[in-house]
C-alpha cells in the first residue's frame, strides 16, 4: 500500500506497541486458531490501519462504540471509503474490514453479517495488479546477488512450489536428503489447508540447502530457516538481537530478505499502483508456469497443495510416482542451467559456509581477505578465499601454541585444569577453548 496518508502512518507507527498490547488477547487467539504468525500480523496490520484512520487506540474505539457515541457500521463504512481513497486493493479492503469486525466482535461489540452487508458498501472484487512470474534469467540474477541464506530461500521456494509459510515452518526432520529427488514432508499442521502432502527439491536447491544448513543438518529439531533472538529492554519493550533462535523465521523477515535480493540484482520495481512487480509469492507462480505444460494441472497443483487437486492426484499416484514425475520435470525448475553457473553457485555457497564457521572461531573473514589481497596485489578467487580461511581455521584447530582450539566434552576438564578457558560450543557439540593470557 502506498503511503498517501502520512499523518495516519506516522500516528500508527508511534502507537504500534500500544495497539498491539491492547489487542494482545485477540491476536493470540488468532494465532492459536491458525498457527500462523502471518495471520496474526495481518490482523494487527488491519487494526493498526483502522486505529490510524480514527487516531484512536483500540480500547478508546471500543468505549466509543459501547457507549453509543459511535455506530460501528458507520465507522466501518467510513473506513472502507478511506481505504479506497488511499489506493488499497479491493481484496485487501475486504480483509481489513473482516479483521476489524472480528476484533469488534471479540470485544463484545455486535456486528451482524446481514447488517454489515446492507450498511457497509465493499468495493467489487477485482485484481488491480497482474502477478508476474520471474523468468529463469531473473532468478539467476537473484541467486548471484543473494547470500547463502537468500539463495536457499529462493531456490527452495522456486523448485518446490511450497507456500512461504509452509517453508518457514519446516524442520530438518521434515526433509529427507537420502531420497532422490530430495523429499519434503509438509505436515498437516503447517499446510494451509491442513492436509499433509509431499513435495520435492531440485538437485540444485538441495545442494544449496545442505550448504546453508551446515552442521545443523544433523539436528532434526532445528528449523530450516531460523528466527532472530528477541530481547527485552529496561522499559519492557521487545527488540531483535543478533543471534538466531531455534524458532521459525517470520514471514516479514523472509519478505525483507527477498526484497533486498531484488534490489541488489537490479530487479526491484513497482507497478502503477505502487505494488511490487516481483514479490516472494511470485516464486510459487514460477513453479506453476514451468511445470504445468510438462506435468499437467492435476500433478502440478497437487504438488503445490491446491486442495481441489490433492485428493484426486493422490488417489491416482503414489508418492514414488509423484517423485518420478517431478524428476522428469526437474530441469524446468533448475535455475543455474549451465555447469559453469552451477559450479559458481556451489563455490559461493561453500565460501559463505566457511565464512560463518570462521566467525565462530573468532576470525574476521573480511579483514583476513583484505590483508591477503594487499600482500598479493590482486583480488582473491573464490577457491583462494576458501583455502585462506581453511588455513586460518586449521591453525586454531591443530596448533597447540595458538590461542584457541577445539576439544571434545571429555577433554574439556583436563584442559581447564591446564589453564585453558571455555569460549563456546559448536553445533557438533565440540567445544572451542582458548589459552588464558
Report on the structure:
The protein is mainly alpha-helical and 437 residues long. A three-stranded antiparallel sheet has the order 1-2-3. The mean pLDDT is 83. It is built from 20 helices and eight strands. α3 (24-34) runs antiparallel to α4 (37-54), α9 (136-145) packs antiparallel against α10 (148-160) and α12 (203-213) runs parallel beside α17 (339-360). The chain has three domains: 6-119, no CATH class; 136-333, Intergrase catalytic core (hpI Integrase, Chain A, Orthogonal Bundle), CATH 1.10.443; 401-437, no CATH class.
Give the tally of β-strands.
8
Write down the overall geometry: globular
Determine the structural class based on helices, strands and strand pairing.
mainly alpha
Give Rg in angstroms.
26 Å
Major sheet details: 3 strands, antiparallel
Low-confidence stretches: none
CATH superfamily of the largest domain: Intergrase catalytic core
Termini, distance in Å? 57 Å
Give the class-level CATH name of the largest domain.
Mainly Alpha
**Which range does the strand content fall in?**
5-15%
Proportion in helices: 55-70%
* Number of individual domains: 3
Sketch the topology as an H/E string, one letter per element. HHHHHHHHHHHEEEHEEHHHHHHHEHEE
Spatially, the strands of the biggest sheet line up as 1-2-3
Architecture (CATH level 2) name of the largest domain:
Orthogonal Bundle
**Mean pLDDT metric:** 83
